[in-house]
Specification:
One of its GO terms (biological process) is establishment of competence for transformation. By secondary structure, this protein is α/β, with parallel strands linked by helices. It has 26 helices and 22 strands. Helix 10 packs across helix 11. The mean pLDDT is 89.
């Protein structure tokens, strides 16, 4: 048994402990005891040891999880307001008129006069509302480690409300947080943190960030270098972050093994040139590494790199050969022993996954690529290993991976890591002596960033196919992982003849093709009523043939009264809800966009989608467009997308058994606004669905007099369930068996109207509501209809 295999067994045990009850662990222990005597004697002890590590790790997770249970959870379920006091347990992030932080609560009470101590400190996510600019400036000075007391209103974090969307509740769960809280600035008292080691490193990090801002006159370059050198990402523009994400370069901005290798190598070289013996130099470098990891924020990738670097230095000091996989295993065991929740952190997964890939796959890759100089073959091997291992993580969490990522990483990463990064550290060190000494490295780094980012932004704008990937299935992840694990084993056993290499390449390409899920959902129509808050957005997928987007929601826009209130990257429903869903479905082309009418809550999100997809056509109601609608249509026309309208009775067929009918309006209609909404009827394999936009009573009367000859199976309820729509006459004619209402939680309009909900239920319809159930999905197949809701417990 090696440290590497023991660490893998521990990971299996943690996963088992997280998802199975203790009784299952006992059953696994009994099964291992029963099976071991039947195994060959040479393998018996090793298998038993690994099974024991697995079971102990599972029990350790369950014990750790029990000790971190929430005391405040029952009060959060009732939305109670209490007084809490504790220690700020994270850097404070101020964005506009909101400050966010983690608070380690030590005492609480119904009022400030009598406080009860916690059995163990509980971490909560606190959101502080700021009303004046001086409050914002003061919040920016709050430091991790400061004591804070406040009157807060507790709540539960929101789960994902759309398929494969970011799950805030799950994210907080693995941060050790079960409860969220909100407070006003006036209800908070903060005491400066006591001086200590952690505060000293936080202060050094802040001072280094300020020095970078002083040395780099360009604000964008300064923010980038703060992220590259110190792991502070607040200064990177949202556009640059998105570009790096889309091109697969986001790992560049994370503190990693490259940073640790560069810093430790420079330090060892310097102190040895100053006359220090080798062993003391290595020992001093290990101390430096610990301080460096703390200065850059002690993120998962930085801690992992620091531990592995320290173990490597320790082995050098003892003149021992360090096996890369065992060093990796020690780092994994130490971090998971400290906090097993790390296993569910994306940064932890990527850092350890890519590092292991580099350790085991780069030697294979250097021999796989047989032609070219050594440096080129090494670069190709490193790029392949990093991209191949990160691929499943990226498509699982973000559903995007650009084919350009392979080439961009091969060309851009060496330039950023071997020139820009050292130039940045050199500028920072020389700037400590005098800012004038840092002029040359600052100019070099700034010029290279400008030269590099221009082409990268141009590449991002290209409509590159196979950039959006559907959410991977569990069996695909297992097979892909098995392939990557088996490749170095087979290579070491001699299976590296030319035909073997062709077979490996073919299998890899087959797995990439399988990740696209080309044969899934072939004979079905999938209709997803997205939860976009107070608005409408519906995605209709006709097998793998056609995609319709009926509206795209819209976030209400309230211009900030003061500049300090402006958010760095404000929430926008098209960018933050509709786009991620389309990516999660692997959609890159939208065949038909239907803009039912020009209200912002239906078309506002469309602007974020226009540059990111290919389009077949845009269907509109034919009335003169208002300002926002006209601007969006102009953007479609600039991309040569035809803008069309229809007439009542017009039909078209996507595939046999799937037919659309335009019901309303007609070109001569005098209706405007909501009553001019596009109304479509979809007949799919015998099931009829009526999409009504925001049509109101007058429009319904015209629809009834002309275009609604028969009942429907599913009704998309008009105007979010407003009392001005869904008249008794319409419901009597439609006789829906099911109805879907798209409305925002706790919206100020009171939608849906209780009268309309009762009216629908009186017709015998099953009512689905996005405000209560999140996204609602209807899957229609030949002979079956299946409903899915994102949130089942209402």
């Amino acid at each position: 048994m090696t440290v590497f295999t023991a660490s893998l067994a521990a990971v299996c045990g943690l996963l088992t402990g997280a998802y199975l009850q203790a009784a299952w662990l006992a059953l696994l222990a009994a099964a291992a005891s029963a099976v071991c005597p039947l195994l060959p004697r040479p393998h018996r002890k090793r298998i038993l040891c690994h099974a024991l590590i697995c079971i102990l790790a599972g029990l350790y997770f369950q014990g750790y999880d029990y000790l971190h249970r929430s005391t405040l959870l029952p009060m959060a379920e009732d939305g109670e307001t209490i007084v809490v006091a504790g220690v700020i347990d994270s850097p404070v992030k101020r964005d506009g008129d909101t400050a966010r932080l983690f608070l380690s609560v030590e005492t609480w009470g119904k009022n400030g006069r009598q406080m009860d101590g916690m059995a163990a400190a509980e971490r909560i996510a606190l959101r502080v509302r700021l009303s004046r600019e001086p409050e914002a400036r003061e919040a920016e000075r709050w430091m991790q480690g400061s004591r804070l007391s406040a009157t807060v209103r507790l709540s539960l974090p929101s789960p994902a409300r759309n398929p494969h969307a970011f799950d805030y509740a799950r994210y907080l769960r693995w941060q050790g947080v079960r409860v969220t809280a909100e407070a006003e600035y006036g209800d908070i008292r903060v005491e400066p943190a006591e001086s200590g080691v952690m505060m000293l490193f936080r202060r050094w990090q802040t001072e280094a960030a300020d020095r970078i801002a002083l040395l780099f006159p360009d604000q964008e370059a300064a923010g980038y270098m703060q992220s590259l050198l110190l792991g502070i990402t607040d200064g990177v523009s949202p556009e640059t972050e998105e570009m790096y994400d889309n091109l697969g370069l986001s790992h560049v901005l994370a503190i990693s093994g490259l940073h640790v290798t560069l810093v430790s190598g420079m330090f060892v070289w310097s102190v040895e040139r100053a006359g220090m013996p080798r062993r003391p130099a290595l020992a001093l470098t290990m101390v430096l590494l610990a301080g460096y990891v703390l200065i850059v924020g002690a993120g998962a990738s930085a801690v992992r790199a620091g531990i592995m670097g320290a173990i490597g230095l320790l082995c050098q000091a003892g003149a021992r050969q360090a096996e890369g996989r065992d060093v990796w295993g020690w780092a994994l065991l130490l971090m998971l022993g400290y906090n097993p929740y790390y296993l569910w952190h994306l940064g932890f997964q990527l850092s350890f996954g890519v590092t292991l890939g580099l350790i085991v796959l780069v030697p294979v890759g250097r021999r796989f690529f047989t032609r070219g100089p050594e440096w080129l073959r090494t670069s190709l091997a490193v790029t392949f290993a990093a991209q191949a291992v990160s691929f499943p993580f990226l498509i699982y969490h973000f559903h995007q991976f650009s084919p350009l990522s392979w080439l961009v990483n091969l060309l851009a990463v060496p330039l950023l890591s071997m020139v820009v990064l050292p130039a940045g550290y050199l500028a920072l060190l020389l700037g400590l002596i005098h800012p004038a000494l840092a002029v040359l490295p600052v100019r070099l780094a700034s010029a290279l960033l400008r030269w590099l980012h221009g082409p990268l932004f141009w590449l991002e704008e290209l409509a590159v196919p196979f950039s959006h990937w559907p959410h991977p299935q569990w069996w695909w992840i297992a097979v892909y992982a098995l392939f990557l694990a088996a490749l170095p084993v087979l290579w070491r056993r001699g299976y590296h003849r030319p035909r073997d290499r062709w077979l490996y390449a073919a299998l890899f390409l087959f797995l990439l093709a399988a990740a696209r899920q080309p044969f899934a959902d072939g004979d079905e129509v999938r209709i997803t009523f997205l939860d976009v808050g107070q608005g409408d957005s519906i995605v209709v997928e006709v097998g793998k043939k056609k995609v319709y987007l009926i509206d795209a929601g819209g976030t209400p826009r309230y211009p900030a009264r003061e500049s300090w209130r402006e958010r760095r990257d404000p929430f926008e429903v098209g960018k933050d809800v509709v786009l991620p869903f389309l990516r999660a479905r692997g959609i890159e082309r939208i065949d038909h966009v239907v803009m039912t009418h020009g209200d912002h809550d239906h078309i506002g999100g469309m602007a974020a989608l226009v540059p990111r997809f290919a389009f077949g056509s845009v269907l509109v109601n034919g009335t003169p467009p208002r300002e926002e609608e006209a601007a969006i249509l102009e953007r479609f026309r600039a991309r040569r997308v035809p803008v069309l309208t229809g007439r009542p009775g017009q039909t078209w067929t996507d595939v046999p058994g799937v037919e659309w009918t335009w019901l309303h309006p007609d070109g001569d209609s005098a209706h405007t606004g909501n009553d001019a909404s596009v109304v479509l009827r979809l007949t799919a394999y015998g099931t009829t669905v009526l999409f009504t936009g925001d049509i109101e009573r007058a429009g319904e009367e015209q629809l009834l007099s002309r275009s609604l000859p028969s009942p429907v199976d599913v009704l998309k309820v008009a105007h979010h369930g407003s009392s001005t729509s869904s008249s008794p006459a319409l419901l009597a004619a439609a006789k829906p068996q099911a109805a879907v209402i798209s409305a925002g939680r706790n919206n100020r309009y009171g939608h849906p109207s209780p009268v309309v909900v009762k009216r629908l239920m009186d017709t015998g319809a099953d009512v689905y509501r996005t405000d209560l159930q999140g996204a609602v999905t209807l899957v229609i197949r030949k002979g079956s209809v299946h409903w899915q809701t994102q949130i089942t417990d209402i």
